[in-house]
Input
Amino acid sequence: MLTAVKNQLRVCGLSVRYNIMREMLNRVTFLTNIGFMILNNATFIVQWIILFHLKEDIGGYHMSDVMLLWGLAASSYGLSRILFARAFALPGLIINGKLDAYLVQPKNVLLSVITSATNTSAIGDLIYGYLIVCLFCFSVSRLLLFTLFTITGTVIVTAFALLMGSLTFWFVRADAFGDNMINCLISFSTYPDGIFQGTARFLLYNIIPVGMAIYQPIHIMIEFDVRSLLTVLGYTILLSAIAILVFYRGLRRYSSSNLMEVRQ
Output
């Protein structure tokens, strides 16, 4: 059992490595995409500097807290797009019947699908996240927690994208709904949770998993709490299990498009 799991992870690792190496064939484009992504994220620092000159705190957050928020959001989203980019394109594969090429391969279908592509510009997001921590709020313990929560955030974001994408097995236009939900997750993750109240706050902690992917980890890094840490870890495992279950249940309903395709 452990050997099989190890082999599956090794194959997935090789797939991601191959995807990145393929993108690196044009090194100028590769490095330019990464550099511009870092610059694009950095432009928002000016916005927050101006806002904090006008007000001492926003939603209970200070400048360093908001930077930590942005860093974690960028690194979590970035790593998910580096390792599991195809999870965000799942509806298109289902609608066009392009899962066929993965079903005939002698490896785990889900891992084969979600690791079959990478977004190299997302490397800039990952780098940006760590630069923010090092420049604005560095400490060894915080860096370790940041790395842990980048991993949990990556898993949560990927699981949510997989869950939304899997709805396409049942509903024809679920792709538009799923895209909107993922965009909401990304957008709300860059604003302090203290500014949201009532229904909005309920949605961000219970429907759109921004709370457990970003907000709760930020609070833990600001003021460490073991129970909150265990809650985040438990939520990560639970959401992943639900996403996997929904995907495989939906896969039973999948209808081939009879396209003859071979993955390169």
Remarks:
- Residues 2-251 form one domain.
- The two ends are 29 Å apart (CA to CA).
